[in-house]
Amino acid sequence: MLRTDTPVTVYRKDYTPPAFAIDHVDLVLELDPQRTVVTSTLTFQRAPGATGDAPLVMVGEALELLGVTLDGQPFASAKEDAGTLTLTGLPAQGTLAITTACNPAANTTLSGLYVSNGNFFTQCEAEGFRRITYFLDRPDVMATYRVTLRADRAASPVLLSNGNLLSERALPDGRHEAVWEDPFRKPSYLFALVAGKLACVEERITSASGKEKLLQVWVEPQDLDKTRHAMDSLIHAIRWDERRFGLELDLDRFMIVAVSDFNMGAMENKGLNIFNTKYVLANAQTATDVDFANIESVVGHEYFHNWTGNRVTCRDWFQLSLKEGLTVFRDQEFSADMMGSESGRAVKRIEDVRVLRQVQFPEDAGPMAHPVRPDSYEEINNFYTVTVYEKGAEVVRMYQTLLGRDGFRKGMDLYFQRHDGQAVACDDFRAAMADANGRDLTQFGLWYSQAGTPVVSVKTAWDGAAGTLALTLTQRCPKVGIETRAGTPEKQPFHIPFAVGLIGADGADLPLHLEGERAGDATQRGTTRVLDFTQAEQTFRFTGLPRGDKAPLPSLLRDFSAPVIVDYEYSDAELTFLLAHDSDAFNRWEAGQRLATRALLKLVGEVQAGRELKLDPALVAAFRAVLTDGSLSPAFREQALMLPAEAYLAERMGVADPAAIHRARLSMREGLASALQREWLAAYEANATPGPYSPDADAMARRALRNLALGYLADSGDAAMQALADTHYQQADNMTDRAAALSALVNSFAPGREHALADFYQRFEQDALVIDKWFSLQGMQRGDVGPHAGKRTIDTVRALMAHPAFNLRNPNRARSLIFSFCSGNPAQFHAEDGSGYEFWADQVLALDAINPQVAARLARVMDRWQKYALPLRDRMRAALERVAASQTLSRDVREIVGKSLAA
Ligand code: B3K
Ligand code: ZN
């Protein structure tokens, strides 16, 4: 397909309300894979503020226009031009009927109406509805919908859409019809339909206020045995939202449908959530513990959107974080509560922060850096980012940190009281939080408008005679990305909730009293204080501390109270002390990560200097202490013993050197494996989970620690340990253990490697999601350093592209091999010969011709090209230029490579 769209930048400041309101949409779809005919009958009204002659300009994409009528009469003054349909001379109100045709089977973009495994699905967010019919396809146009679906009864026995089923009937010629009605006004991006051969499990529950609800999970019939966990997750999510936020399911029926061709995780269409199979299907044999946890979190996320996104939606796409940041925060809190313990909560927090730092911090420092509420875009689908989602969630979390749980709840209640049924902006959410709590949150608004990760530097001054510790905080946040263009205003200090505690020589928290604080103030109890850090530099004085020479040790940014980088020079001894004693579990983990990062970066230097690599005995001792401390939960130990990722280490270097990072990290893993072999083995033995598989938090944590131990043990290179991995593989009765053992065998180049890979494929040949794991594991495998030294992963990857089970059109499959290699295997991807970059360019171009959204995601892999050492940097630029030179690039990919090269 030749694309001719010229890049157009859309600006937030250009927002204007629509000239027409559409109150009701009646859709009739004659479903046919090659030619679906859609008649959309719209009840419209000229908006009160709009001028009398303003035309109605609707958008459409890949549509064939068949006819337009106004109030039942053919309407002649409708002009179709390059994706718009302009209707002039319309009355103040009336009924328009537009008939169009589209080709779902030919739609490989998976946006709009498409076919997957012979079934019909839709994806309308952000701008897919325009691929179904001409419409005012923008989120501030909200209407009620009535949908009539007609299809061949044998090919599509099940017909679903949003809301309630009104009627079903048979039609002549083997066709049938279903009529659905959604009583809630919604924007077009929340429209959905599903038609095909599907089966469901269902359950009835009674909501908190006593109404009966029907819950259904729809899948292909052979997958019915993998729906239990999704259904349980949905019920847990419904109960949690009732308890925590007093929010109930508003429809009589709520459906989840799984589809195997899907661009992202899932979609919150009103009453008809459509999910990637990856986030629905699970049983012990096919899904890992991580899959189970992800399903719970995504099912929760989409369900929570029913209030935060659907009942209150976004005025325009710049406000995306209004629904996404808030809903991610809600799903994070849900998953944390489901962990069932304080230590479980902390582990969830650690996992979330790890993603933020590993993925969002680099985004915020690179060419695509943008504020949580962006000011401009070329293609909105490129802005479903970790900044909008995960940093957006941190911004929401900061309200809760500043206002307390009760204050946050008051703000949420006011938000729904004011805006239920409306399309609003991030500022409206902030105003609700401020007004409900009588707080001025003006400065807090900068979190929405300024990009970049602030760096907070900390200095302490101890007055031992007075027992006073002065903490001086300074913040800076240089311009990033688009902010560096001429004419952008200087950045202002952020309002940072900075949580601190002070630890005494015995390792216990000290009682805190801040100078200027009223004694007995209820908010000032406890041993953690949230400082309101609002200026470029600010000093906070803690008084009444035990006098003496030795200053208390500060525990900074407890529970990661703000998305910032803390710059404070702890000594190794202080970090070891914090790792052993901090009452804040997050900072305990953080201390261990700082120690490991410091040691790793030192080793990277040794690799670069060609010196022998030696492991610091103090680090080994610190790891031993954590590994053998039975008072720490297995979940926490697993987190603390995991080394910082290669991608994270690359970000910490001025000039990234992936080969040296890999060498250093591997050597540390091997060193820890050998030095602590006895302890790893003991942990392996102690954390078995006998009995039938259960995805409960405790069993998951034990398996995680046990499999981490197994991975280290296999890396020791000891034949007995590799045999242990082999046995672990053979005896596994669940996918968590089987996949962990396979990964250990593959990456340690153990003798059992090839046999296990073949066995795994053969066992699961019929299960697409498991075969994705098989591809993914090989895309991420290390290069061989053993007998076949020099064997490059790229050769395996290129060979696997020709495997009969590989399919570029299926996003899960493309991601499993291509993305795993390009973003999950830095050392091999950044091979000095540039072979990884060549491969990347080939695949971006090939994917772009099929599915621009998936191609643009892959294009982002090169974001940080300027950070790499020569000759990598030059080779990365050359690959980017090759892609940029293509004459047929989508707007999606063009924005990404354009911004990369301009940076
Ligand atoms: N709202 C959807 C994402 C749509 C992405 C469009 N490119 C899923 C979610 O965040 O819940
Ligand atoms: Zn979402």
Overall form = globular
Helix content: 25-40%
CATH classification, class level of the domain at 10-197:
Mainly Beta
Main sheet summary: 8 strands, mixed
Strand order of the largest sheet: 6-5-9-3-2-12-15-14
Q: Give me the CATH superfamily of the domain at 10-197.
A: tricorn interacting facor f3 domain
Helix count, DSSP H or I runs of 4 or more residues: 26
Instruction: Based on the coordinates given, report the CATH architecture of the domain at 10-197.
Output: Sandwich
Terminal-residue CA separation: 29 Å
Class per helix and strand makeup: alpha+beta
Poorly predicted tracts of residues = none
In CATH terms, what is the fold-level topology of the domain at 10-197? Immunoglobulin-like
Beta-strand portion reads: 15-25%
Count of strand segments: 31
How large, in whole angstroms, is the Cα Rg?
A: 28 Å
Heteromolecules bound: (3S)-3,7-diaminoheptanoic acid, zinc ion
Roughly what is the average pLDDT, rounded to an integer? 97
Pfam families: DUF3458 (PF11940), DUF3458_C (PF17432), Peptidase_M1 (PF01433), Peptidase_M1_N (PF17900)
EC number: 3.4.11.2
Keywords: Aminopeptidase, Hydrolase, Metal-binding, Metalloprotease, Protease, Zinc
Family: Belongs to the peptidase M1 family.
What is the element layout, followed by pairings?
Layout: E1 10-11, E2 20-30, E3 36-46, E4 56-59, E5 64-70, E6 73-74, E7 78-81, E8 84-87, E9 93-102, E10 112-116, E11 119-123, E12 142-152, E13 158-161, E14 164-170, E15 175-187, E16 193-196, E17 199-206, E18 212-219, H1 228-245, E19 253-259, E20 266-267, E21 272-276, H2 289-304, E22 313-314, H3 320-338, H4 342-363, E23 376-377, H5 386-419, E24 423-424, H6 426-437, H7 446-449, E25 455-463, E26 468-476, E27 496-503, E28 529-533, E29 537-542, E30 553-556, E31 565-567, H8 572-581, H9 585-608, H10 617-628, H11 634-641, H12 646-652, H13 658-675, H14 677-686, H15 697-715, H16 719-731, H17 735-747, H18 753-764, H19 768-779, H20 793-801, H21 811-824, H22 826-829, H23 835-848, H24 852-859, H25 872-884, H26 891-902
Parallel strand pairs: 2-12, 18-19, 19-21, 22-24, 25-31
Antiparallel strand pairs: 1-23, 2-3, 3-9, 4-8, 5-6, 5-9, 7-8, 10-11, 11-16, 12-15, 13-16, 14-15, 17-18, 20-21, 25-26, 26-29, 27-28, 27-30
The chain binds (3S)-3,7-diaminoheptanoic acid and zinc ion.
